[in-house]
Amino acid sequence: MTASPTATPGPTGPPGPSELSRSPVSPPLLSARGVRVSFPGRHGAGPARAVDGVDLAIRPGEIVALVGESGCGKTTLARALLGLVEPTAGHVSFDGRPLDYSGRSLKAYRRRVQLVLQDPSGSLNPRHTVYDAVAEGPRIHGYGGDERAAVAEALSRAGLRPPERFFLRYPHELSGGQRQRVVIAGALVLEPELLVADEPVASLDASVRGEILALLLRLRAELGLSALVVTHDLGLAWNIADRVAVMYLGRIVETGTVEQVLTAPRHPYTQALLSVLPEAPGDPVVLSGEPPDPTRVPGGCRFRTRCQLLLGGEADRAGVADACRTRDPEILDGGGREGEEGGRGTVGQVACHWAHAREAPGPSGPSVPPLRA
Fold first, then answer.
1. CATH code for 17-259?
2. What is the three-class DSSP state of 180?
3. What is the pLDDT of residue 12?
4. pLDDT tens string 32-42
5. pTM of the model
6. DSSP secondary-structure letter at 347?
7. Closest by alpha carbon to 352, among 204, 251, 278?
8. Which residues form the ABC transporter domain (predicted)?
9. What gap in Å lies between CA 134 and CA 290, rounded to an integer?
């Protein structure tokens, strides 16, 4: 299956992700290893496995898109990476050191890793001016420099120029795009190394989305910022990301460079997500039912209850139907281990028995033909 996602308007101006990609063997800036986050179940049910074993790495200057449908665990994983939720198991490391969940350490960590929320109207206090909204971070963290100059520089970097013109404005006096730029300025004022952006353009008009994406790319080019962009919009991932991680029911099921994952998807879930884009060839793949309850994750492959290949007999013909029903695919490393030679993080990975069987070498190539040309 081949598709060129175009659901989100593409940014113009700064170089694209492929032109700015960093060395595939550079040590991760932020990494998660075996992260699990569970919440107590209701009415006697077992724990809800919101994040159920995730490895993920983000390198300096790299933009990673975390993609999946609502409820798959994307935001919970992002909160765990930010230190807002302590993992039930596994660990998060930043700059080679495990995250310390003591108050002082978390405060220092959050100066280096900043969150950009989905809804700027909900992120900004309606009673605070733009100046106070951006200055809140430096005041909390005890910034010792010139506060006014720092706020002005952050607003200018976020594209609000001249910055002084916005100092005394309130959120209701700004457009949606301007409010999102204020939120981004509030993150930039602390000079972070990594941004975690949770659906950063979901609440904006289509005409403004490309401007915000172009801003994020420009910040990466000018400041060397890394970013984790949480989204359900594959078009956004295509336009901004170096690498994509596709998440389903608490686990990453496919990862690789944006070109690998979005032009030649290997997991049937990724194929289904891409099939509904306007320019995707063939008929859309309509998945049956809803994602399973995270308190009752099915045995075997967690996608098997909705998998179009298992339900349609393709997995039987490939000889992997029993494996799909009984064997849980391994956890993907999510971007390569530290110190690995050869840049394993650049190699696409998939947690799918059918994909592995299809790609297994044989006398005449893959054992199963591709779904579509």
1. 3.40.50.300
2. helix
3. 42
4. 999 999 999 88
5. 0.88
6. S
7. 251
8. 32-274
9. 41
